[in-house]
Structure formats: structure tokens, C-alpha cells
Design a protein that fits this description.
The longest helix has 21 residues. A six-stranded parallel sheet has the order 5-4-1-6-7-8. The N and C termini lie close together (10 Å). By secondary structure, the protein is of the alpha/beta class. Helix content is 46%, strand content 14%. 45% of the residues are buried. The protein has ten helices and eight strands.
Length: 226
């Protein structure tokens, strides 16, 4: 029997990749180095899942009432350099059951696509460190630098659909650890938009976006799509 779903689009950090919030800790430090004192919780609440320049804009505007593009670019440039160094040194692991799930999806002829608010260079360096190969361990990577508009706009999901000639978004599932991931899936018209509790946002925060369901482990996705 053919599966109802053709593709699952997974967020990376916090969803399929366990980097212990390294990106948001680095982002917080880069922002605070510009003269602020934001907590990690504040940065996660406003920035999680967003393209990283947009995350900086959101944090500055929400908590300091500041809209300054020059400052945003300056913070972003420091963030990218620091993050590249941090990723080179820190341990990065797959989230529990990530590879097992990708394999189970392959058995079901369901595509596994990764998407991320990172630029392609950063995303590729993470995958290289994990030893994950596009076309082998997962089917495709879509990054913030591949599309015009980023989450919660549906461009990255639509980009992936177009690549694999999928025309019906109800046959696509989106899984992510932040409110904006869920909104992205909803805006794309995905058949399921699922939150996972392994990353940036709490169950309560995820629930505020009205996902179709919330899971605690990637492998819990299988009953939802079977």
C-alpha cells in the first residue's frame, strides 16, 4: 500500500541534530557583546527557527525596541565567525533515532529532507561533522540561503516539493522544535505539522502554535505517518 505521505521535512538543530543549543548560546553571546544582557531563554523565545539575521532583528526589537540594520549585520558577522569556530571544537551528535527514522522512511518510499535557518555553508559543515551525506543518509538539504523568504514563510518547503515534483502539500509532513517550524508547515499547507520537544521550545510554547501533534522522540513520527 502506498504511503499517504511522500516527504517529511525536518528542521536541523534541535530536531535532527543535537548541538545542545550551541547556535543560540553563540547568538546570545554575539548580541550581548554589542552591549546587551539577554538571557538564553529570551533569545530562544524570539529567535528559534528563524534565519539568523532575522533572529537578531527579532531579539533586538522585542526586548530593546531597537531596529538597526547596521547593528544587526555587525552582530551577525561576529556570530558566523564564532559559530564556525564553536562547531569545529564542540561535539555535535544526531538526535536519538534520527538515522533509524531516515532508514525507516526510505523503506516506506518517503523522502527525508532537512531544512534550516542556517546559511548553506554552516549547514554543510554540520552535516560534514556528523558524517551525513545528502542522497545517502537523507534525500536533500534546503537552507535559508536557497530561498527568498524564510520561516514562517513556506518557501523552503515549496523549494523541496518542486525539486521532487510533489504538487500536493497535504502529502508533506513538517517536523521541528520551534513555533516557527510549525507555522512554516501550516503556511505550506502540509498534511501534518508536528512539534518535537528535543530542542528550542517547551511543550507549552509548541502548543501555542496548534501543531497537529507533539512528539518527544523522532521515532514517534512513524505511527503518525503510517
Amino acid at each position: 500500500m502506498q504511503n499517504k505521505f511522500e516527504m517529511v521535512v525536518f528542521d536541523m538543530a534541535g530536531t535532527t541534530v543535537n548541538e545542545n543549543n550551541l547556535v543560540y548560546k553563540t547568538l546570545r553571546n554575539a548580541i550581548n557583546n554589542a552591549g546587551f544582557e539577554f538571557s538564553l531563554e529570551e533569545v530562544l523565545a524570539e529567535g528559534a527557527g528563524k534565519e539568523k539575521k532575522q533572529a537578531i532583528r527579532s531579539v533586538l526589537l522585542s526586548y530593546a525596541g531597537i531596529s538597526d540594520e547596521e547593528l544587526t549585520i555587525s552582530i551577525y558577522n561576529e556570530f558566523i565567525v564564532t559559530l564556525t569556530n564553536a562547531y569545529a571544537k564542540e561535539e555535535i551528535l544526531p538526535q536519538p533515532n534520527a538515522i533509524a527514522l531516515f532508514s525507516a522512511l526510505k523503506d516506506r518510499n518517503v523522502l527525508a529532507v532537512l531544512n534550516t535557518g542556517y546559511d548553506r555553508g554552516t549547514a554543510s559543515s554540520i552535516l560534514e561533522k556528523l558524517g551525513w551525506v545528502e542522497g545517502v543518509d537523507f534525500d536533500a538539504l534546503v537552507t535559508a540561503s536557497d530561498v527568498e523568504r524564510n520561516r514562517p514563510d513556506p518557501d523552503m518547503i515549496e523549494f523541496a516539493m518542486k525539486r521532487f515534483q510533489i504538487t500536493d502539500a497535504s502529502r508533506v509532513v513538517k517536523v521541528g522544535d520551534s513555533i516557527i517550524d510549525i507555522q512554516e508547515g501550516q503556511n505550506a499547507g502540509c498534511g501534518l505539522s508536528i512539534g518535537i520537544t528535543t530542542g528550542a521550545h517547551t511543550v507549552e510554547q509548541l502548543q501555542s502554535a496548534n501543531p497537529d501533534r507533539i512528539i518527544d522522540n523522532l521515532i514517534d513520527l512513524l505511527p503518525a505517518i503510517d
